[in-house]
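Repro:
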Amino acid sequence: MTQNQTPMDVYASCVFNDTIMRERLPKEIYKAVHETILNGTQLELDVANTVATSMKEWALENGATHFTHWFQPMTGLTAEKHDSFLSQEADGSVLMEFSGKELVKGEPDASSFPSGGLRATFEARGYTAWDPSSPCFIKDGTLYIPTAFISYGGEALDKKTPLLRSMEALNNSAVRVLHLLGDTKVKHVNTTVGSEQEYFLVDKAKYLKRKDLLFCGRTLMGASAPKGQEMEDHYFGVLKPKVSAFMHDLDEELWKLGVPAKTKHNEVAPAQHELAPVFENSNIAVDHNQLTMEVMKKVADRHGLSCLLHEKPFEGINGSGKHNNWSISTDTGENLLNPGKNPDENTKFLVFLIAVITAVDEYADILRQSVASPGNDHRLGGNEAPPAIISIFVGDELADVLDSIAGGTVFVKKEKQEMGGAKVLANITKDTTDRNRTSPFAFTGNKFEFRMPGSAVSVANANIVLNTAVAEALDEIYDVLKDVPADQMETTISGMLKDMLTRHKRILFNGNGYSDEWVAEAEKRGLHNLKSLPDAMPAFISDKSIDLFTKHGVLTKEEIFSRYEIFLENYSKTIHIESLTLQEMVKKDFMYGLVSYLKDLKCVGIDDELIASLEDAAKGIRETLKKLKADTEKAEEETDVQKQAEVYEAVVLKDMDEVRKYADEAESLIPDQYLPYPTYGQLLFSLR
C-alpha cells in the first residue's frame, strides 16, 4: 500500500468479483452469471463470450498479459499452464483475444498427474472447467481462472470437483429438512469455512544448507536446542521486526487477491506463527487457503526467509495444523449452528447440531482418513494437537441441553456470570463454557472447529467428508419426519433427537483429550484410534464409505479407489524420499564432520570419555544406516500399495528414528564448526 492507501483501497483490487462484474457486464449477462453462481444453471456460450471479453479488458487494464486455468490436482498442490492473450493476424499484426470457449474450458495434459489408475499413461486428454462460483484474480501478470479438473471420461482428477459435489449434496439435504421444519423461504444452504494456517519462518540462507528441509520439508536429524518452547514466551509474543515486515507484506498481497486475512500472531513453538482468515463459502475458502500457502512462500522469499508448511518440521517442539472452522448458513442469512439465547428451545439449531454429532460419530473413521498424511502422522496424538481419536466437545451448557434431551428432562438454564476486575475495567460477561484445545472437533459458539487437518494439505478432503456425512444424517432426519402430520411434528422431533443422541452420545467428550485415561475410555466406547495413514486408509474403501459417497454423487466407486491408491502411493513415496535423504545427509555430510572432530580430539589426546561416546555413536550410525538401506529396498519391492505403506510406516520410519537417535546424540557433542548444516538453535532463534 502507498502512504495514502488503506486496506479498503487495495482489498480485492486484483479480483474480478461480483462488484466488477456488476459494473462491467450488461445487466442481462450479469443476471445470467449470477444465476449460474447461485443455482448452477448452464452458462450459454454467448454469455461466456461477453464475460470473457469484459474479463480480458479488465485484466489488460491491470497489467495482465496471460491467462491460466488454475486447478488442484491430486498432487496436493495447485497447477497452472499460462497462455498469452496474443493472437497473430495474417498480416503479422497481433490482437489481444480471449473467447468464452477459452474461459469455460481448458485442456491440460492429464497423463502426468496422479490418477490412481483412472487413466492410462497414454490417455492424455483431460479438461479444466471454469468454476464461476470462485472469483478470477490477477497474480504476477496472469489472469487466474479457478477450475475443476476432470478426465476425458468425466472422472474427477482433482479436489475441487468432489468438494463442489459435496456442497450440493448438503444443500439438497438441508433445504429439504428446513422446509419440513417450516422454513420454506430458504432456497439454498451453504457451508462456510475459515482455515487457520500455522507455519514456521526460518532464515533462507540457513534453510538452503539443510538437504532435509529442501527435499522433505522437515528436519530428519538435529539435536534439540538448549531452549525450546518450555518458557512459553513465544505464544502471542511481540513480533520480531523481520517477522512483522513479512506479515505486513503478506496481508497486503492476500488482501489484493480478496483473501480476508484477519488475525496474525506468534504460535507456541519458536519461529512458529499463525494467520487466520474470515469465514467464506467452503469452495472459495479452500481456493483461498491454497493461495495463502503459495503467497506465504513467495513473500517469505522476498524477505530472505523460508516458510515451512510441513506439519512437523522440528522434533521436540509443536508442529503445525490448519484448524478448519466449519458452519452452515442459509441464503436468508441464518447461521444454522447459532444456538441463540435459548438453545434448548431452538429446534432448528438442535436438529442441525445433532445431525453433525450423528455424522461425525457414524463416519469418524472416514473423517480421520481425510486428514491423514505422512506429515500429519508425526503431529496427531502429541501434546500439541488433538489425538488421533475423534471426539466432539460441545461445552457445559450444550452438554446439559443434550443430557436433558436424552433423558427426557427439563433443561434449567444457568445464569451468565459477570467477571469484574479493577474499577477501571469494564465488566465482562462470562461465556457459558470454556474452550477445549485438546478436542479434535469442538463447538465454539456458532461453528465447529475441526482441529485435525495438517498445515501442508488442502482442507478440501476434510470438508468433502464432513459435508457428505452431514448430508446423510440430514437425510435420516428427513426420512423420519417427511410423512409426519403437523400436529405431531414437535413430539416426533423430540423422540427422534432423543433416539439419535442415545445412539451417538459416545462421541461426546468434554475432558482432556491428551490423557491416557481418555485413550482407555475411548476404546471402551468403541471409538476408532487410527494412528497412521496406513491404519486409516481401509476405511475409505469400505462398503460404508462407498455407499455414502456414491449415494450423494460426491465420488464414484472408481474415484474412491483411485484416491485410495494415490494417498497410499504418496505416503510410500514421501517416506522413500525421506529415507534416501537421511542416508545421503549422514553418509556424505554428517559422518565427515564426526570423523574430523574425532581425529582432532585424538591428535590432542584428551577426553577419552568423549572420544568413546563419539565412537559408539559412529558405530550405531553405521549399523542402523545399513539396516535402513536394506529395509527401504525391501519396501520398494512390495507391489501391494497398502502393504507397502504399512512396511514404510512400521519398519522404515522406525529405522530412520534409530539412525536419528545416534546422529542426534553425536551432534550434541560436536562443535558447530564441524557440522555440515545449521543446528536447531540457529534455525529457530536466528531471526531478529
